[in-house]
Amino acid sequence: MTMLEAALNYARLGYTVVPINAGSKLPAVRWRDLQTNPWDAEQIKAHWGKHPTHGIGIIPASRNTVVIDADVYKADTVQQDFAQICMDHQIDLSEAVTVKTPSGGLHVWLQISEAVRSGSDVLADGIDIRCEGGYAIVPPSLNEAGKPYQWGEAGSVFDNPILEPCHPNLIEKMKVKRESETAEVFDLDSFMEQPAADNRETTMRNSVFRVGMEFARRYSAVPPDDLWLQMAWALYTSEPNVRPRNGRTLEQDDRGETMMRAKIRSSRIEVQERLNKGLLDDPDFPRFDLPDVEQEPPVVASHYRITGGADIPPREWIYGKHYIRKFLSATVAPGGVGKSQQAITEALSMACGFDLLRDRAMLNDRYRVWYFNLEDPIEELARRVEATAKYFNLTNENIQDRLLIDSGRDQKLLIAKEVKGEIVAVTPVIESIINEIREKEIDVLIVDPFIHSHAVSENANEAVGEVVDHWKYIANMANCAIEMIHHTRKLNGTEASAEDSRGASALVNAARSVRAISRVPKEQVERAGIEDDPRRFFFSGVGDKANLAPPPDSNQWRKLVSVDLGNATPEYPEGDNIGVVTAFEPPSAFDMITVQHLINVQSLMAKGDERIRKSEQSAEWIGYLVSEVCEIPSDTKPQKIRIKEIIKAWVESGSIVETQIKNNHRRNVLGYEVGTFAK
């Protein structure tokens, strides 16, 4: 269906149609005139015959219709509020006529017994209504990206001309005026007609448009977004009737910034079109002075002179070769391995100045560490900290005021979010973090996990890159080290590496040091002669990326040790047992094994001891001889593995030699004989 055909069909149903500039939400004509003088079929044919790509808007009130516009893509709260509205007022989305917007929003069309005024955020934040004094964009219109408006599950209004009725209680709710009530889009004609703005959003919209028009007049160009934003905000806050939220500045008001940027996007098209058509010098549109804004200093190139380097301060390593002041580091690991618990043990190490994990961490001082867990409640974090302190015999005297713990359940740590396809920094949160680190002289901030510090697509490199840039900015401005705990993708049992990090690679690429931790394979645990539960062991400190330091020589083993917290109650008599991360040195097969043990084995072999077979299934397996001489039990798998490691080492040294021997049936089988006698 063409735009012309669709426009004619809407008109046949009784809707007043409004031509919309292609790829825009802005009307192509003085649309308010259409409320009293709607176009007939010939006028519609004439317009769309000349402008076949123009989109279509309809004035819902022209056919006793109300359109509920829910921006369900914006936030979970909008989704929840909208679902509650549908439940309370008997709206069945499978039967009601709906339109899916290109941005992910939803329009619900309902029959209404009396017209209500259009407005924004009328039913809840992010839920607008379009009826009298407003219009709604309809299919098959396209947005500026070329994506269409589409009919929902119940089909089009052409298929369902008789709409579901709007509940009377919902009509009454729509009549309640909210502070942000306004028309959907801005156009110059309505702007010139209306009295001085007396609400926040209308004043904001007008400020944006005034700045855009005046800038275009002076410089024959549309202003850059950031400059436009700053000037419009300055004009907006100078208006006598404006009511900014709590008197906040632009930097403090993230919602205000988001709204104003949206007004800039919609106004840009109108201003550009007027610039192209030479329609800027409208005598009815008064001139005014553009607000002064603080300009960024110019970028200059600086000459460098070689000095020998002795005067350059060294990098300030805080913990090992991983935590470094003013830089971002990351730890990636699958779930359930122990990465959070390791972060807590490291935090305590830095706060106390003790090398609790035997990392040879080069702790030059005691540091203030802020561990911010964004998943677990504060009482769970307290359990882990207390269990760790109990295991390592730490007290408040050791820690003093150098450990700070917070939970994302109590306060958010969201520094960036996506709004209508754009990444918006949550400036108040960023500035608050910097101020808090500075005021409390915090040296290290550990964020666990990284993914909950933002609300952008984790698979979009560009978006995640912007989030990482904000964290790097915080690290630099606050003069602290920032550690990000990050999940890996599903590994199906394979060993983790930095490349296995979940989502986009921007975090791993930007971090100066990245380490991966993963569970030690069961086979490796057994080969080390360990009879404990293999799930308690993992590798830490795999140096996958160390831009500012050489990689570590080898993996560091960790072991989770269960600590009884001693918090049993009559209701919970078992209390809590918490896994604490500890250092672990895997045993060597040759622990407590000396040259004398080898000499004794060789002597027995030379005297004709029959236990020299290679096969461990044989009763004469040489391992039983080694077990007896070395006093190593051979009845468990880990101990058998250890015995075989000893035999292998002796063979490689030439002390015993593999050969053919005769069994009891005079058949040749593999066995061993003495090689070079040990001394």
Q: What features would you describe in this structure?
A:
By secondary structure, this protein is an alpha+beta fold. The protein folds into four domains: 3-174, no CATH class; 188-277, no CATH class; 317-584, P-loop containing nucleotide triphosphate hydrolases (Rossmann fold, 3-Layer(aba) Sandwich); 595-674. The protein is 33% helix and 19% strand. The protein contains 19 helices and 24 strands. The strands form six sheets. A nine-stranded mixed beta sheet has the order 14-13-17-18-12-19-20-21-22. It has a six-stranded antiparallel beta sheet with strand order 6-7-3-5-4-9. α14 (461-478) links the parallel β17 and β18 (481-487). α7 (200-219) crosses α8 (225-238), α8 crosses α9 and α10 (339-352) packs across α11. The termini are far apart. The model is unreliable at 177-198 and 545-553 (pLDDT under 50).
Q: Could you name the CATH homologous superfamily of the largest domain? A: P-loop containing nucleotide triphosphate hydrolases
The number of domains? 4
Q: Give the strand order, joined by hyphens, for the main sheet.
A: 14-13-17-18-12-19-20-21-22
Q: Provide a count of the helices.
A: 19
Structural class: alpha+beta
The low-confidence parts are 177-198, 545-553
What is the CATH architecture term of the largest domain? 3-Layer(aba) Sandwich
Shape designation: elongated
| Percentage of residues in helical conformation | 25-40%
Q: Quick check: average pLDDT?
A: 81
What's the end-to-end separation, in Å? 96 Å
Tell me the total number of β-strands: 24
Instruction: Identify the CATH class of the largest domain.
Output: Alpha Beta
Major sheet attributes: 9 strands, mixed
Strand coverage percent: 15-25%
Instruction: Work out the radius of gyration.
Output: 36 Å
The CATH topology assignment of the largest domain is Rossmann fold
